[in-house]
From TrEMBL:
<keyword id="KW-0813">Transport</keyword>
<dbReference type="InterPro" id="IPR000515">
    <property type="entry name" value="MetI-like"/>
</dbReference>
<keyword id="KW-0997">Cell inner membrane</keyword>
<dbReference type="Pfam" id="PF00528">
    <property type="entry name" value="BPD_transp_1"/>
</dbReference>
<keyword id="KW-0472">Membrane</keyword>
<dbReference type="GO" id="GO:0055085">
    <property type="term" value="P:transmembrane transport"/>
</dbReference>
<feature type="transmembrane region" description="Helical">
    <location>
        <begin position="73"/>
        <end position="95"/>
    </location>
</feature>
<feature type="transmembrane region" description="Helical">
    <location>
        <begin position="140"/>
        <end position="163"/>
    </location>
</feature>
<dbReference type="InterPro" id="IPR035906">
    <property type="entry name" value="MetI-like_sf"/>
</dbReference>
<feature type="transmembrane region" description="Helical">
    <location>
        <begin position="107"/>
        <end position="128"/>
    </location>
</feature>
<comment type="similarity">
    <text>Belongs to the binding-protein-dependent transport system permease family.</text>
</comment>
<dbReference type="GO" id="GO:0005886">
    <property type="term" value="C:plasma membrane"/>
</dbReference>
<protein>
    <submittedName>
        <fullName>Spermidine/putrescine ABC transporter permease</fullName>
    </submittedName>
</protein>
<feature type="transmembrane region" description="Helical">
    <location>
        <begin position="209"/>
        <end position="228"/>
    </location>
</feature>
<keyword id="KW-0812">Transmembrane</keyword>
<feature type="transmembrane region" description="Helical">
    <location>
        <begin position="240"/>
        <end position="258"/>
    </location>
</feature>
<keyword id="KW-1133">Transmembrane helix</keyword>
Length: 274
């Protein structure tokens, strides 16, 4: 087979995998969310007998979904900004400096990623109670910030390592201030990493369940806590499909917007050729 044939075959296989992995589950979620409450969708029906938006309206009217959405989208930007600010000094040290024990420090910074979410949640509950923080919103903000610091540190470390030292030296030799050196040498390279860290932490905060559930329930609810309530003992698939779409669709739009922003920045900046 020629090179073009192999490329075509790989493209077809990739398309099939994409359809099976993404399109089919998303399409099933849409169908389940539109199942009319009066007409159950069950075997041997291939498609629902009747479609309607009654599930959506009932979920909005009979649950605190609106409050949960407001809570989730109030938490996420605060967590994203706090995480980015706290991660920046550590990421600078990992990306620009050499010091004894650096590999150990880098490994230690990533440890929260391997710990189970409920273990971290239980630890934070005890810790926050001991230091006197009883506000659920503040507790979840602190918990999410610590939980997602490794993502921001890792992304920003790579961005800092891509900054060219000769540009920094040239700006310094020309008499540029610290702020001017940062704007000229650091910011163009860091901008994609900053955007990536913000978006990833934002999405992770919206989708996080364990810590939000342990620290916030029953007074402070988020979209994932409502979703998991329909996936637990009282499993109601159409209602769960409605909540899952409300949780996933905005994140997909955000990721597409992020991808567009990255393309607009240009790939040459990442390669250090700007």
């Amino acid at each position: 087979m020629s090179g073009k044939s192999w490329n075509r075959l790989l493209a077809i296989l990739l398309g099939l995998v994409l359809i099976i992995w993404l399109v089919v589950p998303f399409g099933m979620a849409v169908l389940w969310s539109l199942v009319d409450p009066d007409k159950a969708w069950s075997y041997p029906d291939l498609l629902p007998q009747k479609l309607s938006f009654r599930r959506w309206s009932e979920m909005w009217e009979t649950t605190n979904l609106a409050v949960a959405i407001a809570n989730s989208y109030m938490l996420a930007p605060i967590v994203a900004c706090a995480t980015l600010l706290l991660a920046a000094p550590t990421a600078y040290a990992f990306g620009r400096l050499e010091f004894p024990g650096k590999p150990v420090a880098q490994f230690t910074a990533l440890l929260p990623l391997v710990l189970p979410g409920f273990v971290i949640a239980l630890f934070f509950t005890a810790l926050l109670n001991r230091i006197g923080i009883y506000n659920k919103f503040l507790g979840i903000v602190v918990g999410h910030t610590v939980l997602f610091l490794p993502y921001a540190i890792r992304i920003l470390s790579v961005s800092y390592s891509l900054v060219r030292q000769d540009l920094i030296d040239a700006a310094r030799d020309l008499g540029a201030s610290r702020l001017a050196r940062f704007s000229a040498a650091y910011l163009p390279v860091l901008k994609p990493g900053i955007l990536a860290a913000l978006v990833i932490v934002f999405i992770q905060s919206i989708e996080e369940f364990a810590l939000s559930f342990v620290l916030g329930s029953p007074d402070f609810t988020t979209v994932p806590t409502i979703l998991y309530s329909y996936l637990g003992y009282n499993f109601i698939r159409p209602n769960a499909a409605v909540v899952s779409l409300i949780l996933v669709v905005p994140n997909i739009i955000l990721m597409l917007l992020f991808e567009r922003l990255l393309k607009s920045n240009g790939a040459v900046t990442l390669g250090g050729k700007g």
